[in-house]
Amino acid sequence: MRLVVQNDKKGRLRLRGARLRRARLRGAVAVLAVAAIASGCAQGGIAGQPGGGSPAAGPVPSRSADAPASPPPGTRPPDSTRRPDGTRAPDGRRPQSAQQAHAARVAAARRWRLARVPLVPPPPPRSKPEITTRKGFEVDGHEELGLPPVFTTVPTTRKIVFLTIDDGAEKDPAFLRMMSDLKVPYTAFLSDYVIKDDYGYFERMRRTGTGLHNHTLHHRYLPALSYRRQQYEICGMQDVMEERYGVRPALFRPPFGNYDRDTLRAARSCGVRYVPLWNEEVFVDHWEYREWDRKIRPGDIVLSHFRGRGEWKGTMPDMIRRFLDKVTAEGFAVARLEDYL
After folding, report:
1. pLDDT digits (tens, 9 = 90+) for 147-170
2. pTM above 0.70, yes or no
3. 34-68, pLDDT tens digit by residue?
4. Are the C-beta atoms of residues 140 and 261 closer than 8 Å to each other?
5. Under 8 Å CB-to-CB from 109, ≥6 apart: which residues?
6. 116: Cβ–Cβ under 8 A, 6 or more apart, which residues?
7. Cβ contacts of 272 within 8 Å, gap of 6 or more
8. Which of 259, 307, 295 is nearest to 151 (CA)?
9. Average model confidence (pLDDT) for the chain?
10. 3, 15, 19, 30 from 7: Cα distances, Å
């Protein structure tokens, strides 16, 4: 018996086709393997090089480490411009970490030639302190008439002070840059006769979170005026503030710190709730104190003015430098007055 080998052309063609298909399959697998390796390198880098990691560490996600994962279908993506407490960063950007914020403060302190980096104030209190009129600053019938309290210090044990700046005569753009750069809060008490030539300057201030409040229309000595005239000065400024800045202020400071019973009655009729004065005043070249021992106390309100070289021996940034260097050296942070009222 002999072995019969079938000499079939179609059979040889089928065999050749099968071999070609197997070769193509092996080639496709090799291409896919190379692509997978390339993709892994692009995503995770190479171990021992920037972006690389240990092979045992597992795959590196393609998104950055601080980017949020894709939200489930039907849900809104997280808002990265909001802080952990839900408030939005004023400039619309993502809020800084504590380390980034500190580094920014250090850099800003160097730029503005401060002796020390300003201290960060504690969070505002959940329960606001009770504000009462300072002893000796009352008028007849103060409590009985429900007149706004007049005070120079906010009751607190925290080592904080409050910076307040009056009138609005000087409009130094460097001052706005400095305060925004340093993130130092302050409160402005404005008079219309000196701000009306540039309302926009104080609108830029307001957009950074600065409180704008009432210092009368014309900065008159109020006790010399009748009740109606005082009411005109105070309520008229309330109207200007509402028209220009969209709010009727709750705080009022009488010019020169002088007032009488009619002043407080008029202020109350205009919607004023508080009359903060001051315990210290800072200038470019010196400080002045209300207290005999010339010491800064927790919760003190500090007064300054919008002034420049025309009336001072320096600029507003010079005044802020003197203010911050002293309070920081004594362990005080600067807090926002409105947060405690």
Report:
1. 999 999 999 999 999 999 999 999
2. yes
3. 444 444 443 433 333 333 333 333 333 333 333 33
4. yes
5. 116, 117, 118, 182
6. 109, 324, 325, 328, 329
7. 148, 214, 234, 238, 249, 250, 251, 252
8. 259
9. 82
10. 12, 13, 19, 35
